[in-house]
């Protein structure tokens, strides 16, 4: 039997279907952290109010907002560091990989092996470059020198500092420049094989060249890790993040794809802040 040739209309319809199938939606990334109705008080100060925020894996999420709006408090809540302040009280839920980390049964130590943190000021230990990176794996029970050597080299390579330090691994980390110290701190963080890296203004103490290197590094690292970065630098947030959350007076005013936040924000307060009208 002869199969009738497709009519021109049918051909158009068919090619439309193929076109739509080929033009796949961008892959939706899994949620790593899901924050629901989260509140935090320092004594009487209600520092975070009804925070609702999802953070996706293998993306850079930028947290922006004026001084005192709660950015650091929020990222320190994500690894429960904030609870080191005795007056802190919280309500709501922060789920990490589906488990509520605020639940009393959830062990903070478990979280700290999965979530690394890099601070505003590079804070290497007063030890050799090697020992700074080997410290975390040693705490986790790795004693074999060959394995430790491999972890140290791999971590320093991934933080793009290996070539600069490979011949001085036994020297004190304090002898490195600020930018090198910050990359060393990132290597120290990578050595524990985290899933998430929290960065609290990681470039604010660095010169423009070192800042650029950290930004490039964050772009590279997001292929393997989820990164949450507090920054005061709008260009930096626009350059390197996939999602941006704008905090103001302890609330999230807007959280959206970075392109959207910077080109067409939903809230006029976001627009005022990113265009430098306040903050
Ligand atoms: N340990 C603390 N005890 C009491 N209040 C605190 C403490 N830490 C922060 N706060 C208050 O909580 C609010 C949020 O502070 P936080 O440091 O999170 O803001 P931020 O947005 O990170 O500010 P910055 O950009 O200046 O670092 C501020 O009002 C601050 O004074």
TrEMBL record:
Q: Which GO terms describe its molecular function?
A: ATP binding
In this chain the ABC transporter domain maps to 33-274
Which keywords does this chain's UniProt record carry?
A: ATP-binding, Nucleotide-binding, Transport
**UniProt-listed Pfam families:** ABC_tran
Tell me which domain of life the UniProt entry assigns to the organism this sequence originates from: Bacteria
Q: What name does this protein carry?
A: Phosphate ABC transporter ATP-binding protein PstB
Which organism's genome codes for this protein? Virgibacillus sediminis
High-level lineage: Bacteria, Bacillati, Bacillota, Bacilli, Bacillales
